[in-house]
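## retry 2 of 3
previous attempt timed out at serialization; input unchanged, resubmitting
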Amino acid sequence: MKSMRTRSGWRRLLVLAVVFWTVHTAAASAWGGAGMARPLSIEVVYDNYTVAEGCEAEWGYACLVRAGGKVVLFDTGGMPGILFRNMAAMDIDPMSIDAIVISHTHGDHIGGLFDLVEKKKGIPLYLPASANDHLVRSLESRSSPVIRVGEPLAIVPGVYSTGELRSAGGVGEQALYLRTAKGGVLVTGCAHPGVAVITDRARRHFKEPIHFVFGGFHLLEAPDEAIDAVIGELREMDVTRLGPSHCTGDRAIERMHAAYGGNFVAMGVGNRISLED
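## retry succeeded, writing output
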């Protein structure tokens, strides 16, 4: 009897080992290794600029991230009607969104938030830790769990929040960090704390170089010297690809285009960029 129990125990262990190996292999295939999700791509759905016919430009920002079968919406623009029309023009179903991350709670970034919450009950929302209590309660009353983000954390495999940073004026803001085979990709909503500051925080925390930064850089009223200083800081951190938009300002975008040349990415609604290349 002792021998039979022993053999039975070994068989159970063998079955568990096979199950573990199967699940682990499937997960590795789906996510492309620890901390990375494949396929990984981004789609800009709200911006001051457009790059595709049938899409509308308006002040504000929203970007969709597709990571290993998961869909994360970063910000929601300023006007829900324009957000949803742009999504429709790009054949994006709002019901496919698995999570929403808000960079900061200014109106041009949360304009479509309540409409999205009404469409998809229970969708998790990641807001900066300093988000207004009334806003948080209002969202929670609509059955959406709100996660207040202070420190860096994972949203879905391969997609992370940088954690909240504060600007000199007290604006609390988080950015998205995407892990790729080439290194990190950083997505900023407005970069009120400074795009170079956020980039430095992310590369230090995630302990890998950041090769691509895009989104709003909050340089609309910055003088040329300040713009050039930001370009210099990003280059010193080995950022090799740049896609400024939204609140960066036309003058800053022009100077960044001149500085980065062929590694400059013209951003706007309609952008679909694979991060596998």
